[in-house]
Amino acid sequence: MAISRIDLGGAGSPEALVKRILQAEPNLSMPVPIQEMCARLGILRIEDLDTDEFEGGLVTNAKRSEGTILAKRGGEPRRRFTIAHELGHFLMAHHVPDQPGRFLCKSSDLRRLTAKEGDERQLREIEANRFAALVLMPPHLLRGAMAAFREPDLQHVLALARDFMVGKEAAARAYVQYHPERIAIVVAGNGRVQRCYRSLSFPTIICGVGRPVPTRSRYHNSSHLPNIAGDIASCSPDLWIDVRRDLRAPALYEQVYLQNNGFAMILLRLEPIPEESAEERRLEEGWRYRFHSGRR
């Protein structure tokens, strides 16, 4: 790896930084050698962080010329994301730490996708997460990997997590973002919705964060085996999305992947509503007219 800080001059946003990195390293391998990249970009050491309160941290000097990344021990995919997140803080000069020369990040910071208006700290964490996702799953490599995937399937998410050596949830976010179909992935923990990721074309999920997973969801099917993606099957669309009663209901499909720790991923796939024929529209409009006018 030949990249240096000089290659990143003038880049301030996560997207600009990763663009410069990919220009300097066009043959970047998969999984991305994030620790080697850190060493090339001014990180002197990567040390273990022994605390339950924080997931990662960064110690650096005022000029941001060198630094030490702290990462909690655990699974390698999770640790790699933490390292990349802290590298993002290090490379973005406008990221000002809460304490002079020291960033400390909780696990909730590493999952953050939205920020309260005017909350600069939350905005910094979102940028560091965008950088980590982009540098660990470079778009051109991700698109290449997903080219072999056709019908949406949680097996694909597991394959991405393995090949890019990232966490399953990070892979799920990328999968939803880059897949061409209308899909969403719900992360559930102990029977309740924890987080929802959906493509831009997927409607709002009505079962909000903190609420129980709908009782008629396939999630509650006792036949699921841990760490094996279940079959994809149709479900009632009004379990997850708002369905207008005066319109034809779309087809919605569910797939469940249970994990050993009480968590699960639920893939939702929404098929477009088939266009009605002229005869179907004529009959439907006639039915509505009779219903609303009181005629029989």
From TrEMBL:
The name this protein goes by in its record: IrrE N-terminal-like domain-containing protein
InterPro entries: IrrE_HExxH, Rad_response_metalloprotease
Stretches assigned to the IrrE N-terminal-like domain: 71-173
Pfam families in alphabetical order: Peptidase_M78 (PF06114)
Superkingdom of source: Bacteria
Lineage: Bacteria, Pseudomonadati, Pseudomonadota, Alphaproteobacteria, Hyphomicrobiales
Gene source species: Methylobacterium bullatum
